[in-house]
Amino acid sequence: MRCTQTSIRLLASSSFLFQFVAAQSCSPQDNVLITFYGYPDNDPPGAGIAYTQCGRSLAGGTGTYDDPISFATAADGPFTPCDIVYLPWVKKYARFEDTCAQCAQDWDNSRQYHIDLWTGSTTVNGGNTQIECENSLPGGQQTIVRNPSNSFEMDTNPFFASGNCNRKTFPWRRWWIFFDEIICRERTRSDYHDAAGSPHDNGEY
Fold first, then answer.
1. What is the model's pTM?
2. What is the DSSP secondary-structure string of the chain?
3. What is the pLDDT of residues 77-90, one digit of tens each?
4. Closest to 73 (Cα-Cα) out of 85, 62, 65, 63
């Protein structure tokens, strides 16, 4: 269940009683290793995915909540097939639709969260140019949001298309859980990520 608004009801009687009704909240997951893969370095090459029950038969997606980009991770790791996460530094949603051997090894050996993000395409092999792009995209250790709301900002520009590599990142605010107006809110602390994906810490958690 994704983040939803929290109902706070005040019941009047001889004393005040506060009743909090909250759905399962979204939560930040730190230290997630982010890598990228696509048509040329999929195994086997192509756009095939392991989990077709999520709504499509091939890897893809534009990064919106309704059309998240595919990601691969450990089959027996911390995610369930079709789980959706939000990637704040690139303003994209992603969905667990494929498996990743290195991700599984990382999870089994050290409980390292590792997701491999799809760069495209469904039909075109970008060859070495695409693989070079993947190696330069903003990955490394990042923070993702699990159980995200469907209302976070979105950027639908692809990571790789027609030989062009999109390394754009965005300033973002760390999402935290507050029992206030909504469960998942922006804090005043901002984390900025450069083109290499390195966070610039501007405050305390």
1. 0.77
2. ----BPEEEEE-SSS-EEEEE-PPPPEEEEEEEEEEE-TTTSSSSSSB-S-GGGS-SBS---SSSSSPEEEEE-TTSS--TT-EEEETTTTEEEEEEEE-HHHHHHHHHH---EEEEE---SS---HHHHHHHHHHSS-EEEEEEES--S-S------SEETTEE------EEEEEE-SSSBSEEEEEEEEEE-TT--EEE-S--
3. 999 999 999 999 99
4. 85
Q: Which of 199, 148, 145 is nearest to 171 (CA)?
A: 199
Residue type, 133: C
Q: What are the tokens at 4? A: 């939803």
User: How far apart, in Å, are the Cα atoms of 83 and each of 39, 41, 58, 69, 158?
Assistant: 22, 23, 16, 12, 21
Amino acid at 105: Q
Alpha-carbon gap, residue 33 to 5, rounded angstroms: 30
CA separation for the pair 137, 120 (Å, rounded): 13
Q: pLDDT digit string (tens) for 10-27?
A: 323 333 332 232 335 678
177-189 residue pLDDT tens: 333 334 454 442 3
Tokens representing 111?
A: 């409980």
> Beta-carbon neighbour count of residue 156 at 10 Å?
12
Cα 172 versus chain centre, distance? 14
